[in-house]
Automatic annotation (TrEMBL):
UniProt gene name: SPATA13
Organism listed in the record: Microcebus murinus
A GO CC annotation given for this chain: cytoplasm
Domain spans labelled SH3: 69-128
Region annotation (Disordered) ranges: 134-160, 507-533
The protein's name in its UniProt record: Spermatosis associated 13
Keywords: Cell membrane, Cell projection, Cytoplasm, Guanine-nucleotide releasing factor, Membrane, SH3 domain
């Protein structure tokens, strides 16, 4: 963090105060479109919702729950694409059991049958953690309550409380979000416009996009939410109609999210100069904003639009069909899910190309076109045995991308080193599932096998998986690859040539000075670069904790082994 004395030497903080036309200091109170001030202050929000605003507050609460033996679950805001065995990959909406949260950026968790690190900013904690505990205890065959009528009444009360919890979270996070938007508009944009010698109009348009329009829209949205919020009995609140009334307005997020990659690149260039780092820190201190860098604040709209469907899904879960808001909540969930889906898809693509580029640079003996010339996403990877017509078997590691399947061979001594062995054009291949037994075309006995057959030539490739489950995953992955290619074409989802070139350039820079063939970790790149992955600036932290620390804490986590993973 920049020291206050250093900022003061850059300029006087008092020079940043806004002065009105009559010479008086401009009030920092936020005035809505009807001329009335908002009825909540930053201090009120801090007192009412400390875990939303205070850095580390949520992390502390999680560790207390885990320490007490509670099952803590989080839902993925968006996909986490990874080629690193030490990272936990998941898709938007997946449920992850949080096992360790001592590091604020990377948490240790379980998804299905794997435990690994994952970026904390990719997930949203479930509001009703206590329900998971009740479900767990109820799954051990405990005796039912003797008083069935009393139990039903208690269940009804519990459901009301669950709905109350979700409603309150929606309201609280919305108020905090408005505070963050206000800080961006008043704390950053307004000050930047005063310093025309530092920022051009074009630069400000690139960095901040249409966030002022989002701020104006969200204030109206929150105003309508407040009208529908039942303070005395929150579970009776009917907020679904607000989302439906404003669903067209949420379209403005598309422009912001599309602009965001360019915003982060422009900001990264400015941040290379000390005077800009000092300027933005001075703005943050003057506005009394929480300790998050400007790129983190600019990420909040992207996170917010992806959080809405998760919140609405949980609200729908605790809204009975008899509730007057049920149909509206259900429709609102579908509407916001569609909005977030497009944004998540673009984010995943942008993240993927950096990791794919770094992966290619780490492969020894790469031949032909860059992988990014045709592909922008890793679909699946794993080991398969490739069999020739002569019956010779070759153990290979395969990487399935959109449009192509790449074959690599592991080094016998250094198993983290991969050698390029070829690729197949998936657009020209047809998948053929094989039954266990003798293949009549090749006159070979096969098990867990499938073929890729060329549509235009006699080229045929035969593969065998170790287990039936592995084969099933590959068959599903091949189907997913064809589906995603088609969806990308229908949605016009393309990554620009400049973005691809930049990803390859950064990957090559990251590889300079490394010994040939040394495989680079597919985690975040060096700080000196401007990777596409950083277009969602807080999306993935700079580095993961060492496995040493997980081992060091294993004694405290040992109790978690006996807990069952949470279900979605």
């Amino acid at each position: 963090m920049v020291a206050r004395g250093e900022i003061a030497r850059f300029w006087s903080l008092e020079s940043l105060h806004m002065v009105s036309a009559d010479g008086g200091t401009e009030s920092s109170a936020l005035v809505d479109d009807n001329g009335s001030e908002e009825d909540f202050s930053y201090e009120d929000l801090c007192q009412a919702n400390p875990r939303y605003l205070q850095p580390g507050g949520e992390q502390l609460a999680i560790n207390e729950l885990i320490g007490d033996g509670s099952v803590v679950c989080a839902e993925a805001l968006w996909d986490h694409v990874t080629m690193d065995d030490q990272e936990l990959g998941f898709k938007a909406g997946d449920v992850i059991q949080v096992l360790e949260a001592s590091n604020k950026d990377w948490w240790w968790g379980r998804n299905e049958d794997k435990e690994a690190w994952f970026p904390a900013s990719f997930v949203r904690l479930r509001v009703n953690q206590e329900e998971l505990l009740e479900n767990s205890s109820g799954a051990h065959g405990e005796e039912p309550d003797e008083d069935a009528g009393h139990g039903h009444h208690r269940h009804s009360e519990n459901k009301h409380q669950m709905r109350t919890n979700v409603i309150r979270e929606i309201m609280n996070t919305e108020r905090v979000y408005i505070k963050h938007l206000k800080d961006i508009c008043e704390g950053y944009i307004r000050q930047c416009r005063k310093h025309t010698g530092m920022f051009t109009v074009a630069q400000l348009a690139t960095i901040f996009g249409n966030i002022e329009d989002i701020y104006k829209f969200q204030r109206k949205f929150l105003k309508d939410l407040e009208k529908q919020y039942n303070k005395e009995e929150p579970h009776l609140s009917e907020i679904g109609s607000c989302f439906l009334q404003h669903q067209e307005g949420f379209a403005i997020y598309s422009e912001y999210c599309n602009n965001h990659p360019g915003a982060c690149l422009e900001l990264a260039q400015l941040m290379k100069q000390g005077k800009y780092r000092h300027f933005f820190e001075a703005c943050r201190l003057l506005q009394q904003m929480i300790d998050i860098a400007i790129d983190g604040f600019l990420l909040t709209p992207v996170q917010k639009i992806c959080k809405y469907p998760l919140q609405l899904a949980e609200l729908l879960k605790y809204t009975t069909q008899e509730h007057s808001d049920y149909n509206n909540i259900k429709a609102a969930y579908e509407a916001m899910k569609n909005v977030a889906c497009l944004i998540n898809e673009r984010k995943r693509k942008l993240e993927s190309i950096d990791k794919i580029a770094r992966w290619q640079v780490s492969i020894v003996g790469w031949e032909g076109l860059d992988i990014l010339d045709r592909s922008s996403e890793l679909i699946h990877s794993g080991e398969l045995t490739k069999i020739t017509k002569q019956g010779k078997s070759q153990q290979r590691t395969f990487f399935l991308f959109d449009h192509q399947l790449v074959s690599c061979k592991k080094d016998l001594l250094r198993r983290d080193m991969l050698y390029y062995k070829g690729r197949m054009d998936m657009d020209e291949m047809e998948l053929v599932d094989l039954e266990d037994g003798r293949d009549k075309d090749w006159n070979l006995s096969v098990k867990n096998a499938f073929k890729l057959v060329s549509k235009s030539s006699d080229e045929v490739h035969l593969f065998c998986a170790k287990k039936q489950e592995d084969k099933a995953r590959w068959l599903q992955a091949c189907a997913d690859e064809r589906r995603r290619v088609q969806e990308d074409q229908e949605m016009g989802m393309e990554i620009s040539e400049n973005q691809k070139k930049l990803a390859m350039l950064n990957a090559q820079k990251a590889g300079q000075g490394k010994s040939k063939g040394k495989r680079l970790p597919p985690g975040p790149p060096h700080q000196g670069l401007v990777p596409q992955q950083q277009v969602f600036a807080l999306a993935e932290p700079k580095r993961k904790p060492s496995l040493f620390w997980h081992t060091f804490n294993s004694s405290r986590l040992s109790g978690s082994e006996s807990r069952r993973p949470c279900s979605s």
